[in-house]
Amino acid sequence: MTTASAFVLANIPSPDRGVWYLGPVPLRAYALCIILGIIVAIWWGDRRWVQRGGTKGAIVDIAVFAVPFGLVGGRLYHVITDNQLYFGEGKDPIRALYIWDGGLGIWGAIALGAVGAWIACRRKGIPLPAVADAIAPGIVVAQAIGRLGNYFNQELYGGPTDLPWGLEIYDRVDPDNPLIKDPLNGVALNDVPVEVVHPTFLYELLWNLGVALLVVWADRRFRLGHGRAFALYVAGYTAGRFWIELMRTDEANHILGLRVNVWTSMLLFAGAIAYFVLARRRGPREAPETLRDPWDRDDPDDASAGESADDGNGAERESGDADAAGAESEPPARAGESDDSGRDEATAGDERKVERGQ
């Protein structure tokens, strides 16, 4: 058995390329994975939102703001923390805009994406923490899908290993000039690996799926609310990112001997745990009627409004309408009663006068 065959049987092979061309149009696996992840997060988030009593389509409307903000935030975080890749002598700053070549920091994506979501929630009159709880498991699944893009890009892996699930790394070259190495856009011309490494992208993918299951289970079991499901997602994700980040061997800036993302993971984990504990004082999950888009609450044509019978919205509205109607009718009724009382007293007085001969 040849060495190459042994590698194929024992390890995980990398794709031979990460981009295909339809004529002049490039189809990049990384971009396709990001798009698929966003679609899954929005679809699942909207389903969870409706199940909690919210208006169908609200998450889609919020995503119109959150997704562009998140993409910009993710790229900004990457460019800031890895600025040496784009700025300095011999570098091309314009490549900082090449998002399709990889490089999105999840921390920046979540932070600036939250700003976009906050703007949309303010416009729709619904609480941001409740939205965050609805979309939390979808976001971490989207991150898992995004890690497949790193697999196709043959990036973000760990050190050498002889474990059976080691990842084979191949040399990729420019198909028009095999003498030029091109890891992102090139093609592997043979299946002989140059090294076998820890597939840290796979470790994080599996960890993220586990976090999604944890959030769904805990949310159903304990009826988390007020942003606690989202905080659990952040804590779970950063706990995994901490140890996985320590395994990675790709270039990264360091602070006090640790990678920047290790420090970020520790700080966000602590913040998420603190929020999760403190938010318990706010009580159980938000009432369903607080999650509906105010513009749709009284719309008789909104089919989803009729489906909220379990939370008592219709009964509360009818009761409120009856009380309002009663309140409006009380003043005339009281006025009528005082008039009748006056007439009765006058009639009784006349009768007394007749009896006394007056």
From TrEMBL:
Residues 287-358 are annotated as: Disordered. One of its GO terms (molecular function) is phosphatidylglycerol-prolipoprotein diacylglyceryl transferase activity. Keywords: Cell membrane, Lipoprotein, Membrane, Transferase, Transmembrane, Transmembrane helix. Catalyzes the transfer of the diacylglyceryl group from phosphatidylglycerol to the sulfhydryl group of the N-terminal cysteine of a prolipoprotein, the first step in the formation of mature lipoproteins. Residues 287-297, 336-358 have a biased composition (Basic and acidic residues). This is Phosphatidylglycerol--prolipoprotein diacylglyceryl transferase. Its EC number is 2.5.1.145. It is found in: Cell membrane. NCBIfam families: lgt. The chain crosses the membrane at residues 27-45, 57-77, 97-119, 126-146, 201-218, 230-248, 260-278. Pathway: Protein modification; lipoprotein biosynthesis (diacylglyceryl transfer). Residues 298-310 have a biased composition (Acidic residues). Pfam families: LGT (PF01790). It is a multi-pass membrane protein. It comes from Prauserella muralis.
